[in-house]
Amino acid sequence: xxxxxxxxxxxxxxxxxxxxxxxxxxxxxxxxxxxxxxxxxxxxxxxxxxxxxxxxxxxxxxxxxxxxxxxxxxxxxxxxxxxxxxxxxxxxxxxxxxxxxxxxxxxxxxxxxxxxxxxxxxxxxxxxxxxxxxxxxxxxxxxxxxxxxxxxxxxxxxxxxxxxxxxxxxxxxxxxxxxxxxxxxxxxxxxxxxxxxxxxxxxxxxxxxxxxxxxxxxxxxxxxxxxxxxxxxxxxxxxxxxxxxxxxxxxxxxxxxxxxxxxxxxxxxxxxxxxxxxxxxxxxxxxxxxxxxxxxxxxxxxxxxxxxxxxxxxxxxxxxxxxxxxxxxxxxxxxxxxxxxxxxxxxxxxxxxxxxxxxxxxxxxxxxxxxxxxxxxxxxxxxxxxxxxxxxxxxxxxxxxxxxxxxxxxxxxxxxxxxxxxxxxxxxxxxxxxxxxxxxxxxxxxxxxxxxxxxxxxxxxxxxxxxxxxxxxxxxxxxxxxxxxxxxxxxxxxxxxxxxxxxxxxxxxxxxxxxxxxxxxxxxxxxxxxxxxxxxxxxxxxxxxxxxxxxxxxxxxxxxxxxxxxxxxxxxxxxxxxxxxxxxxxxxxxxxxxxxxxxxxxxxxxxxxxxxxxxxxxxxxxxxxxxxxxxxxxxxxxxxxxxxxxxxxxxxxxxxxxxxxxxxxxxxxxxxxxxxxxxxxxxxxxxxxxxxxxxxxxxxxxxxxxxxxxxxxxxxxxxxxxxxxxxxxxxxxxxxxxxxxxxxxxxxxxxxxxxxxxxxxxxxxxxxxxxxxxxxxxxxxxxxxxxxxxxxxxxxxxxxxxxxxxxxxxxxxxxxxxxxxxxxxxxxxxxxxxxxxxxxxxxxxxxxxxxxxxxxxxxxxxxxxxxxxxxxxxxxxxxxxxxxxxxxxxxxxxxxxxxxxxxxxxxxxxxxxxxxxxxxxxxxxxxxxxxxxx
Length: 934
What we know:
about 950 residues; globular; Malto-oligosyltrehalose synthase; GH13_cat_dom; 8-stranded parallel sheet; GH; alpha/beta; Trehalose_TreY; single chain
């Protein structure tokens, strides 16, 4: 037997130097027994040394030696194959780690500029509006203004004997010198031999065949290397470097003159915001964008990935940040075809079938994944939003928003908060990207006499308003122009811009509509058509980071109606999902993307799956929550300090802190446990610092407001201090104690829905037990796998563990039983129809149920929904049987007459048209039934 190519269930593992590939090998039997068919690995290609995530790849041709290299990967795959399991690999085609001294491609571009064979690998504008950067690139890696750094002596020349090269070094950053500039460098000495070498370098042609120029430079550098091998020659080279010592005025002047003739301009890191002329990942200057639309880039960055697939070491890929690329559709289709073409070459023992191709894609609530991309689906953010939404009470939306607005003065509507954040991001964080797109549009305007009078400033204002109102990550202009879906997105954005733009700028909106999506007139010369297409691509590659930075990384930390809905893939203004909408989403997934990933926790989540499930209970008790906030803010007001004339923390940060405290409070934490409280405070303090800086209101990453942050940290520590008269510790613990059972019920519902819905359930490392994590790095803490192994080995039924639900074993047992059914009935869950099952009776709104049917096999999933008001006084996450009253499931015709067995270890259920909830959910808040032969 070999592993199936298409996974039944995946388990995501985060690899890093403290958890290398070999660390996963002994875990394979555990995951196999749990019901996992494929491990899903974080990026494994060579990343920056010490990387904790792997998304900063510096060499795409090697498995990261810090993780054990290809030998370790082969050992892991051998273990997986021995258990009929496979491997899915996370790949990063959009960007690479740049700066530093470890990316050979990047260093070559710095050295050779536009003549480098890698110059077109990175998305660099070699002809930007700033003439000072013509054929040069901004290198904003200095920690202070250029002149200050030069005077400090931290930027200095060094000689590399192995290569004969001289380079500038600034802490971890290396800046190679252009070969032609060695003539200037070596002219700083009277030594005849070096003067002769200077003439050799001076002879390097600026024009000519690149290979010939590189060969000549190589010979010249070889001569310098040989010269430096003698003590006398090395002393002469050292003298040249000493002549450029920045610690004296003359040396500093020489060093500056040398740096001014390089293919880059060194700059303070803050200059990137306004002047950078190459695409980054969002606003992260250490990650440089790649041009995957160029065939040579695709080949170079996918060579090893395709080999791993052809050799049977991986069985599919997860594509990171697909929206960063110029042509996501073209990229995905090409990758699909290349993988499919290699399938016949895979070893006999490797799984056969179609490779899995998943993409990281954030979908707006109204947006559907394009059907022509030839992908299996997304990595599951949309499902994470849907399942969380259906566990929130829509009745809580308005009162919670009103409480938030009344107590903070912040907008009650998330959309207003997001638009304000978009303007701020465009003004400060992505100003250079906005400028570059505006310049591209200005060039188009200058081509036509009727539009040349529209100014750069006016275009930038109009473009800003369109981006502020853009309702999705991006559009996808194709060869044939824009699709109907893209037209609607741009229409939406332009309609919003018309409401907020200056009257005098409104005519520009019609032009933007044409330039950014309409098919360029066929009468235009090829160069102008290409110019328009390039401007549209720039716009699309700008709208995605604007959305990510302003929504997920800013507004999510400003809007606190209920932060369980501030999650990657979610739209906080979309507070809750109706059961009918959830069923519709699942039916669509079964029809169009049956192999899409189903995630409820990821390495990027803002808070853990069980943190969100617990906070969702607040949606059922908005009045009590308002009263709690009123009391706590009054009790703790004396702990606040004044910073910049305002209280610290202010109401916005204070209320979001309370929610994080409630969500992250461990179930076994006694309020008298000082050590446990200290550990929780440290976790919350790390979250708080990140939240304050991401929110960009009173602090930010670029310029941390240390007094405000310190005051907020002191407030956190003081409010949970031991022996406070207010006894807030006890009040928090009491509130958590009241809502935690309902939260656990939500969590078990979420787990079972994930395991039985159309798609592939994904388990994020460690979330077999309760996951009350916060944003990274809290969600990447080490996992206690021995405890999880022991729970699985015990094999106890979920119902038997429910009385001890606080230890998390009931969740692990539920997961194991559900995945066991998937393993026994793979066709049922891979291909089965999705059938909504309606409830009737007085508690019908408190249940969600659906069936899967394939041939003679069927399953029935039943979960408690909105449980808070129905739970008894026993402290269990279980609605008493009598509380269900006359509520029953009305089975549709497709399920009539089937006999049912409880797949979670309980009793059977006879055939009939109705199933009483009081009986089905007597022992657990969820039920999974499977049909039995008649």
